[in-house]
Write a structure and sequence with these properties.
Layout lengths: L1 H18 L2 H13 L3 H13 L8 H12 L4 H13 L3 H14 L7 H12 L7 H8 L5 H7 L1 H22 L17 H11 L4 H5 L4 E9 L5 E8 L3 H12 L7 E2 L5 E2 L1 E9 L3
Antiparallel strand pairs: 1-2, 1-5, 3-4
């Protein structure tokens, strides 16, 4: 019965908050927060930080209730503390809040605190900037898509660097692949035939179309001695959605005319191919 009463009080408090009735909300929240309800503690903390519905604004009380809530693994309270210290220009404390609570409650890495921790690593808030760590943390997060959208430029730089490392590693392990051949490898029928083939076979990803994503993807590919397309990767990214379609269509290409070495024999040749995605 008490649980039902608490739920009703919490519902009332949240309704008052929506209506801007902060004193009424605070009156409902106070006993719940003191009784250990994590959400009520979080909401009470926001009121103290903002000085709404309480006698006076109090950072001390805000920290107290936010910490009580965070100690129960309540993600919004963890982020509230993070935001408070970040606003106070104490980046070190902001980072440590996130680091400590995500270690205590690993599930928070998949929630908003994980999102905030990824920002710390991306921007170097309280910790040495580590782009790879940031994207490792955000992978699988509930807000992964939002993060990639908000930090799209940083994300594209990250995956472009990743692709370049992969290409360098491939070339290191395949010294017989040359970048210059005479003649160079070519699509059967030439550039015009290739463009026509791409026009027929390239599919504009629906999600990219809906989000207005367009641009030129540069593909790195290897034409094997028999003209087949071997290794394929991205030399310059626009967006992972377009990157994957560009890779798909290149892998589906018919055999090319292979490049030749100085002795006139076919050689494995690397080739860069731009593929343009343009919205109509």
């Amino acid at each position: 019965m008490a649980s039902a009463a608490s739920a009703q009080s919490l519902w009332s408090a949240k309704s008052y908050l929506k209506e801007g009735k902060y004193y009424e909300a605070a009156k409902e929240l106070q006993p719940l927060a003191n009784g250990g309800d994590a959400e009520a503690q979080y909401l009470a903390a926001t009121l103290f930080f903002e000085g709404k519905g309480v006698n006076k604004q109090s950072d001390e009380q805000g920290i107290k209730y936010a910490t009580l809530s965070a100690n129960q693994g309540y993600g919004d309270a963890v982020c509230l503390l993070y935001g408070y210290y970040l606003q106070k220009e104490n980046q070190q404390q902001a980072y440590e809040i996130l680091q400590n609570y995500t270690e205590r409650f690993p599930s928070l890495l998949k929630e908003k605190p994980g999102y905030c921790l990824a920002i710390c690593y991306l921007k170097g808030y309280g910790v040495a900037a580590d782009t790879e760590k940031a994207w490792e943390i955000i992978k699988g997060n509930q807000q992964e898509a939002d993060f990639k959208k908000e930090y799209h430029k940083e994300y594209i730089n990250y995956i472009s660097e990743k692709y370049q490392r992969e290409i360098r590693e491939f070339e290191k392990n395949n010294p017989d692949v040359v970048s210059v051949a005479y003649p160079s490898p070519s699509f059967p029928g030439g550039a015009q035939a290739m463009n026509a083939w791409l026009y027929r076979n390239l599919r504009y990803p629906v999600l990219a179309e809906e989000e207005g994503i367009q641009g030129r993807v540069i593909i790195y590919l290897v034409v094997e001695k028999d003209g087949s397309i071997g290794y394929v990767n991205i030399s310059r990214s626009v967006d992972p959605i377009l990157d994957q379609e560009a890779i798909r269509v290149v892998k589906a290409m018919p055999k090319w005319i292979p490049g030749k070495g100085s002795n006139g024999r076919p050689v494995r040749t690397s080739y860069t191919l731009p593929i343009t995605f343009r919205l109509q």
